[in-house]
Amino acid sequence: MKAPVLRALLIGITLYALLPLAAEAQPLRYELGRAVEYGAESSVTTSFGSHAPLWLDANRYGLATAKGQQGYLRAYVERRCEMDSDRTWHAGYGADVAIGYGLTRPWQLQQLYFEVECQRSRLTIGQKQQPMMLKNAELSTGSQALGINARPVPAVRYDLNWWNISGHANVVAIKGHLAFGCMTDGLWQEDYVGRDGRYVKWALYHDKSAFLRIGNPERFPLTFTGGMEMATTFGGTAYNPIGYNIEGQTKIRLPHGFKSFLYALRGKGGSDPTDGEQFANSAGNTLGAWLFRLSYCADDWKAHLYYDHFFEDESMLFFQYGWRDGLYGIELELPHCKWVSNIVYEHLRTDYQAGPIYHDTTADISSQISGTDNYYNHNIYQGWQNYGMAIGNALYASPTYREDGSLMFTGNRLRAHHLGLSGTPMPNLHYRVLYSYVKDWGTYALPYADCRHSRSIMAEVTYNILKQHAASPWTIKAAFAADRGSRLGNNTGLQFTLSYHFQ
Q1: I need a labelling partner for 15 at 20 to 30 A (CA). Which of 38, 71, 318, 375 fits?
Q2: Could you report the per-residue pLDDT of 325-384, keeping only the tens digit for each?
Q3: Second-level CATH architecture of 32-84+97-275+286-502
């Protein structure tokens, strides 16, 4: 199926999904101007060292970068679907733009989307910051597959929110999403790596998830949630790719037809031109993670144990090579303790990666061993990144921290410990503290001569300016952060943010 035909098909499906809105179009038109939230934000970061400290720019949806000196002015408008709670069909939209210095571009479109919701289903068209599953967004290091560290990707996305499938007992529910979009950082990649470097323009993007929840806290305090997240980049035009040996060719147009979309959907199938006939692999860059969480909810506190297991292609997908790698976490919620209301501890291990030995099947070797995985790296699509920031967990250290013209992750065999604390000692005063220790061996292909270490800390205070004993739309935030060690270098920085939000 040709690309124009496919685009027409996708547009037709989207329009068909919006047809039920016609019955409510007249009153809805007047409602879309109600309950609109808008605001502005100004932030300045100044650092001493090779770049900004890790926790001043990580897990901010790519709005901050690794630059030591940066700042932005941001304006946004948003109407959430929840504001139409008395309707069968709900509608929402948002626009979010930033201008500044030290960003990936002098101006940055952060969000622009429209969405409709009916019952438990939601269709989103555009670029929207999506929340992270099963973790505390304020204190966690982030999910390994689909985190909150990079800018959102424009896509058409369908979400199914916790749908009860167990009748009146409501003890079993399912949740999931499906999205297809397009990466927009191709021109930025070309500028960053240079015309002779390796980069991809207009790569297509797909992600999906499926989760199962067992339990009902209103009936029993123990609840289990588990599922999978998967993502694929495919198609696009690759420049100077490794393994493409046709003389005089410096770029290749990667498969992007209807079959490529099906391969991305199933996570397997097809082959890239650089694979060769004997060692054909799956088309595109496919990765994902298994996520599990066990929650105990008491009357005045909650505890969560969770596990996030990353995999590349089929390696480490199941139990063939053992699940030694993973993000192990525990979170405590203490709502009645104002000084320390949330505590998160995480241990990240990624140094195994299916073991140090790999070989493919040949005429002489009938067995295939999927060792030496290379987390977040791919021979064509480079690193698992968007505009230089890791799409997954922030501890992998995004390529832009090096500024060496490469989009690969040079250190992905890690062992790390992380602690996060937050509290609200006064109604208008909130704080959080993050501390991370990382031990890094590099990669299997290019190990470091000596193991590298880093310690990263941040203390942040948020103060809401009270006005006659009521919350004000004005908020001031101040943060101090530092890195120490051979992995990220010695960096010290301050960040000040002034925000205005009106609803």
Answers
A1: 38
A2: 999 999 999 999 999 999 999 999 999 987 766 655 555 555 555 667 899 999 899 899
A3: Beta Barrel (2.40)
